[in-house]
Amino acid sequence: MNETLFMVGALAFGAALLPVALSIAPTPQPLTQVKIDARALFRKSPVAVVGSLLAGVIFGNWIYFGPIYGQAMGLSATGIAAMLTAAMIANCPIASTGGM
User: Fold this and answer.
1) What pLDDT shows up at residue 81?
2) Quick check: 28 and 36 in contact, CB under 8 A?
3) Is 0.70 topped by the overall pTM?
4) In this model, does residue 68 exceed pLDDT 60?
5) What is the SS3 assignment for the chain?
């Protein structure tokens, strides 16, 4: 397999780190510790909490069982990767232009 694309990606990542590594700017102060109160969140918005949990369970199952399904359907590794990529892109919210 050709490693050229991997090497180009690694070089781009390394080049992106250079400005941060060579900066003389002072480091920012650490943020204060934040405590999440799950019960208060559930009291304020139970539908959001339940919806987030269900979305995580559904997407987690898809990521786990998607490759198994793709392999059972006879897809190659590239086909399975394309299927999972398409599923991730399809889950991205698309902005509505109705208000424009």
Assistant:
1) 92
2) no
3) no
4) yes
5) CCCHHHHHHHHHHHHHHHHHHCCCCCCCCCCCCCCCCHHHHHHHCHHHHHHHHHHHHHHHHHHHHHHHHHHHCCCCHHHHHHHHHHHHHHCCCCCCCCCC
